[in-house]
Amino acid sequence: MSKITLVSAAVLMRGKHEFLLARRPEGKVYAGWWEFPGGKVEAGESFHDALLRELHEELGITITQATPWLTREFTYPHATVRIRFFRVTAWQGEIHPHEHDAIAWLTAGKPPSVEPVLPANGPILKGLALPTTCALTNAEENGTALELSRLKAALTNGLRFIQVRDKGLPAAVRADFAREVVALGKAHGAIVVVNDTPDLARAISADGIHLSSRSIAQCLEKPEFEWVRASCHSIEELKQAAALELDYALLGPVLPTPTHPDAASLGWHVFEQLVDLSPLPVLALGGMKTEMIGDAQTHGAHGLALMRGWR
Predict the structure, then answer these.
(1) Exposed / middle / buried, residue 44 (Cβ in 10 Å: 0-12, 13-18, 19+)
(2) Which of 37, 73, 149, 225 sits in a 20 to 30 Å window from 95, CA-based?
(3) What pLDDT, in 10s, does the model give residues 232-266?
């Protein structure tokens, strides 16, 4: 096995939706290609230390807020790299491309306005399009009318990511409810996925499906949807989701939850250990509240999945 080169990379965020790419200059491998700024981890450095140093050298800025996000491995003709991506949301100084010949701000969720982009960064671009808060519906407890009313209000307030859960509803009722949720979601530009039912998802033109941990264990390839995610409770299940090249995963329960009061919760320390090398965005599930998103991202989460706490 070839030696793995460790790399730290920065996803610099301007607001909620803009991110920065930089172009490699003449004389470097992959000259003219666009990438997330960063560089090799030197001996004795942590990924975070390398990030601070590289961003100061490359862009002339001092990072003041960065949270771990994804780790991806990629084999180029010249090297195999393990890239630790950080979301950088605050810095001091003005950005100047000292070691690149151009920079560009792009909008998450839209096709890149620059090209070519280094191959290892394709999944990163898709991950940036994934909202950081996912609302899990709870119509079984609240009733379909109240849940639709809650969703309308939340979508008006900016919610852009919904999972239709409610597997205990009668099939016809669930189908009608899911169809209305998809219609609401499309009207607001939101992603709507359906829990573990590909046929229903196709019938109502949902954006994707959510697979249970049992389903991913039996799955041989990624289902053909724009967004496919899985429930995970262990490192083995996270690895299976990654092997299937799913788009993201839910991991939990992180904290005690009324839905599964007898289930052992992971706690933030174990959650962080499990997602440390995940190549997929991972949403923290179980006992979450909207105000916890900062803590969750500090521990490596992409964001939160909530059933009762969304609004």
Answers:
(1) exposed
(2) 73
(3) 999 999 999 999 999 999 999 999 987 777 778 99
